[in-house]
Amino acid sequence: MSSAEIRKIRRVEDLGLSTSLINKLREAGYRTLEAIAVANVNELASIVGIPTPTAQRIINKAREALGLRFMTALELKKERLHIGRVTTSSKKLDELLGGGVETRTITEFFGEYGTGKTQICHQLSVNVQLPKEKGGLEGRALYIDAEGTFRWERIDAMARAVGLDPDKVMENIIWARAISSDHQMAIVEEAMDLIPKENIRLLVVDSVTGHFRAEYPGRENLAVRQQKLNRHLHQLGRIAEIYDVAVIVTNQVMARPDVFYGDPTTAVGGHILAHAPGVRIQLRRGRGNRRIARIVDAPHLPESEAVFIITDEGIRDIEE
Ligand code: GTP
Ligand code: MG
Questions:
Q1: Which of 156, 200, 228, 249 could lock 166 by a disulfide, CB 3.0 to 4.6 Å apart?
Q2: Domain 80-316, CATH homologous superfamily name and number
Q3: Beta-strand relationship, 200-206 and 173-177
Q4: Is the CB of 114 under 6 A from ligand 1?
Q5: What are the residue boundaries of the structural domains of the chain, listed by start?
Q6: Residue ranges with CB less than 5 Å from ion ligand 2
């Protein structure tokens, strides 16, 4: 199989198996490529009732589809060239990000309240629907709203401003309100099924940390909270990678971390992605509607800053 063909495999249904075999796999609990990729070959063969070599072929295909294989640096380069990017509607911010937010990556926007994290999430949910030549991916967005701050009115305004039909744009944003950290994790679990079926190319979690902080306050809960949050982020990272989706998470950090002594996730930076690959953008307030974005610890991007503004139309560059 060519790598282009392998890249098309996103679900068990794409493995080229017969419907009855797919059903057998499903019934036996092998519902995802990952479940198949890590299956024991003899177990899979006997449970589903197929010969061992066939089982091995299915497992190998699933592993290839997930990228669990050796590749040369050149192949890796070619793979990375396929990465999609979504514009933020600010050239300066796009430049900072290396051309927009990337698929197969988690991008974290962190900063104090009112720094524009939610506005950026709205803008990207609109822009992902744009045609490729306009900075989109012609895909849909899945918006996990943990704070209840999603506003369709903003989507409407931003859609009009980029010349898209607002009702169509709203139809292409699937919204889910997460009411607790467990609920948030369950939604992401379900999203594994939804994403490939619904052509979702952008997944937003706004904010990713709020429920975890509220439910596990203080130093005494820190270990368990971080453990759960890590699991959640790991899951999001896998979604980004497997489904070629841009994952955007936000993280509110306090202005004065010293007030919240003993809680490192409230410290500037938060370090929630410290161990997860991704891009981290710190936002802070400038004069008026200006906001300053700074990239932090991105291995492939230089540490620099960009200024943008929040307008009625959405995220924009400062007019010079
Ligand atoms: P928290 O969720 O509280 O941490 O803040 P946040 O970083 O998500 O901030 P958010 O993205 O909600 O940004 C709020 C800011 O965006 C406001 O202070 C306004 O300056 C700006 N904003 C929001 N809606 C509009 C709008 O309709 N028009 C304009 N011009 N600005 C807006
Ligand atoms: Mg917000």
A1: 156
A2: P-loop containing nucleotide triphosphate hydrolases (3.40.50.300)
A3: unpaired
A4: yes
A5: 3-65, 80-316
A6: 117-118, 149
* pLDDT at res. 89: 98
CATH number at 3-65: 1.10.150.20
Q: What is the band of 173 on the pLDDT scale with cuts at 50, 70, 90?
A: very high
- Work out which ligand 1 atom sits closest to the CA atom of 109: 7
Mean pLDDT of the chain: 88
Atom of ligand 1 at shortest distance to CA of 115? 7
Residue listed under structure tokens 């524009």: 116
What is the pLDDT, as a whole number, of residue 82?
Answer: 81
Tens-digit pLDDT profile for residues 24-41:
998 888 888 888 888 889
Distance CA 91, CA 99 (A): 8
Q: Is the Cβ–Cβ distance between 138 and 202 less than 8 Å? A: no
Q: Looking at ligand 1, which atom is closest to the CA of residue 154? A: 27
Name the pLDDT band for 250 (thresholds 50, 70, 90).
very high
Best substitution site from 90, 118, 158, 254 to test ligand 1's pocket, by max atoms within 8 Å of Cβ? 118
